[in-house]
Automatic annotation (TrEMBL):
EC number: 2.3.1.46
Site (Important for acyl-CoA specificity): R321
Similarity field: Belongs to the AB hydrolase superfamily. MetX family.
UniProt keyword annotation of Transferase present: yes
A GO CC annotation given for this chain: cytoplasm
Name listed for the protein in its UniProt record: Homoserine O-succinyltransferase
Function: Transfers a succinyl group from succinyl-CoA to L-homoserine, forming succinyl-L-homoserine.
Pfam families (UniProt xref): Abhydrolase_1
Catalytic activity: L-homoserine + succinyl-CoA = O-succinyl-L-homoserine + CoA
Keywords: Acyltransferase, Amino-acid biosynthesis, Cytoplasm, Methionine biosynthesis, Transferase
Lineage per the UniProt record: Bacteria, Pseudomonadati, Pseudomonadota, Hydrogenophilia, Hydrogenophilales
Domain of life: Bacteria
GO molecular function: homoserine O-acetyltransferase activity; homoserine O-succinyltransferase activity
Length: 375
């Protein structure tokens, strides 16, 4: 069900690029497609464009619904639309499926022109910086020289930050939500356990499972269950599930006993039906690799010295995957590099997933910030 004041029916679009894209890992993508959606109208001055960057399992489908699939609601539909905090009556909003994705942009499931077969395990490693470079080319195609804002949560927040460093003259405002300047060792560890679940699935076939007509469902299912635990807070799990029993009594088995187990299995099964395992591997590695301060001896303030944008950084109190302390690292670096920065720490029980939800104070902060952006 769409949110009130939805953008309504939307259509995905595809842009093809023949110009090769050099990648940070050293390889070159010879040609590629980017699938994207737009909402609102680009003004005559082309000054009201806002780019929305998606997180690990997100896509270009940010808001609205499809005519042939009315139950497929955009993942940020509560935020983007007419009269909403990111108001499509004021802004022209763009959502893009990242390279390496599995929702239409060129990725492991796409055909490798050199072999005529799916890329599979041969698809090159992609990074946050590569995604930003590809997004910049799409902006060129759409005639957008400078974004009014780039916004994203989690991995999307890393992309928003990277925009201010790679193309400082092309973005006026950056909204980085529930994110971090780089992953902690614990976060990398969670990603590695999730990847090992996929890599050890007998149906993985070294990443070339497409040719075998199978999907590493068990590995992908387990990876999602691991990830989902980290997206929720202990308070959220306790409030929603507690120790409630699935069948009312203990049955003394390894089947589902508790409601939280049922929930995790449901989420894992659902995810394994629509997401690509190779995309999951690539995307978690992109998370691991991101570290804009690495070229500055670990000095994040030095990395941000070249940024020209104003910033809004938002964190949530119960987000332990991307804790408020990590957001405050970003804010401190921006302050030390004398940048225009606002910070909001939202009291929420929902953990990392808070950035996806319609929290009144959170939305009020975003609305107030977008209201100050002149177009």
């Amino acid at each position: 069900m769409t949110h009130p004041r939805s953008v309504g029916f939307v259509e995905a679009q595809k842009a093809h690029f023949d110009e090769p894209l050099p990648l940070k890992a050293g390889r070159v993508l010879p040609q590629y497609d980017l699938v994207y959606e737009t909402y609102g109208t680009l003004n005559a001055a082309r000054s009201n464009a806002v780019l929305v960057c998606h997180a690990l399992s997100g896509s270009h489908h940010v808001a609205g619904v499809y005519r042939d699939d009315p139950h497929n609601v955009g993942w940020w539909d509560n935020l983007v639309g007419p009269g909403k905090p990111l108001d499509t009556e004021k802004f022209f909003v763009i959502g893009v499926n990242n390279l390496g994705g599995c929702f239409g942009s060129t990725g492991p499931v796409s055909i490798n022109p050199a072999t005529g077969k799916p890329w599979g395990a041969d698809f090159p490693f992609v990074t946050v910086e590569d995604w930003v470079n590809a997004q910049a080319r799409l902006a060129d195609r759409l005639g957008i020289e400078r974004f009014a804002a780039v916004i994203g949560g989690s991995l999307g927040g890393m992309q928003a930050l990277s925009w201010s460093l790679q193309y400082p003259e092309r973005v006026r405002h950056v909204l980085a939500i529930a994110t971090a300047p780089k992953l902690s060792a614990q976060n990398i560890a969670f990603n590695e356990v999730a990847r090992q679940a996929i890599l050890s699935d007998p149906d993985f076939h070294g990443g070339n499972y497409y040719e075998h007509g199978v999907v590493p469902k068990q590995g992908l299912r387990l990876a999602r269950m691991i990830g989902h635990i980290t997206y929720l807070s202990d308070d959220a799990m306790a409030e929603k599930f507690g120790r409630a029993l699935r069948h009312g009594i203990m049955r003394y088995s390894y089947d589902i006993e508790f409601e939280i187990e049922s929930y995790l299995r449901y989420q894992g099964d659902k995810f394994a039906r629509f997401f690509d395992a190779n995309t999951y591997l690539l995307t978690t590695r992109a998370l691991d690799y991101y570290d804009p301060a690495a070229d500055y001896g670990g000095d994040l303030a030095a990395a941000f010295a070249r940024a020209e944008a104003a910033f809004l950084v938002v964190a949530f109190t119960t987000d332990w995957r991307f804790s408020p302390a990590r957001s405050r690292e970003i804010v401190s670096a921006l302050v030390h590099s004398e940048k225009d920065v606002c910070y909001a720490e939202i009291d929420s029980k929902a953990g990392h997933d808070s950035f996806l939800l319609e929290h009144p104070r959170y939305h009020a902060v975003l609305r107030a910030y977008f209201n100050r952006i002149e177009v």
